[in-house]
């Protein structure tokens, strides 16, 4: 996992602002997180990065425990909580591997977020362990939210801009990627190693380790297929029309036929 730590250490501040620069993922995810969360809860934000979701939930009165693999991101999250006056809502900022939540007791949390680890763990054994740990620390009946990356969308991105996604700059390499789902960027400093999922394997994977599926959401929905010109066109139609576009994308994020085109996917499940 050293490559993941190195990548996010170098991009800590940029990671904090990523969901401001690319807000659709956050808007859709947060809509459904709030829809499924109970009114009061102690939430684990596991693999939280700099804590974008944690800060929003803390501001709404939720109790938060935050963990991440990268020490610099954990430190940045603690700094942001202080700057935002939210420290009292946090019950710790921890440097932990998602596959080994050794500091936390069984059934400690009412709900849990895991918004990054599962697509950075390239080995199946580590992904299984992370899901088992998520299950262990969540209370019975608790809601979990887990992020995945779409294999179909990454194929689409590679076909659109092969030079940006080397070694996926040949049909042979893209075909290999579709079989194994593993991606390691050829260019140093670009997106770290990742594992991309087929849409149809996500729910069965989570269910195999004890979760009951509530929903699978396309975090960027069909908006992931819109280019810059399209976004600018809809923005040019005025705030009211653009708001309707966002509402449409939130609504259609649940459409099973559109899930594959979304860059990120949000699994929502309940501990059985």
Label this structure with key terms:
272 residues, alpha/beta, Rossmann fold, two-stranded antiparallel sheet
Supply the CATH superfamily name.
Answer: Vaccinia Virus protein VP39
Q: Tell me the fraction of residues in β-strands, as a range.
A: 15-25%
Number of strands: 9
What is the H/E order? HHHEHEHEEHHEHHEEHEHHE
Large-scale geometry:
globular
The overall pLDDT average reads 94
Please describe the biggest sheet, giving its number of strands, its sense, and whether it closes into a barrel.
7 strands, mixed
CATH architecture: 3-Layer(aba) Sandwich
Total DSSP helices: 12
Q: Briefly note the structural class of the backbone.
A: alpha/beta
- Across the major sheet, the strand order is 3-2-1-4-5-9-8
CATH class: Alpha Beta
Total count of domains = 1
- Say what the CATH topology is: Rossmann fold
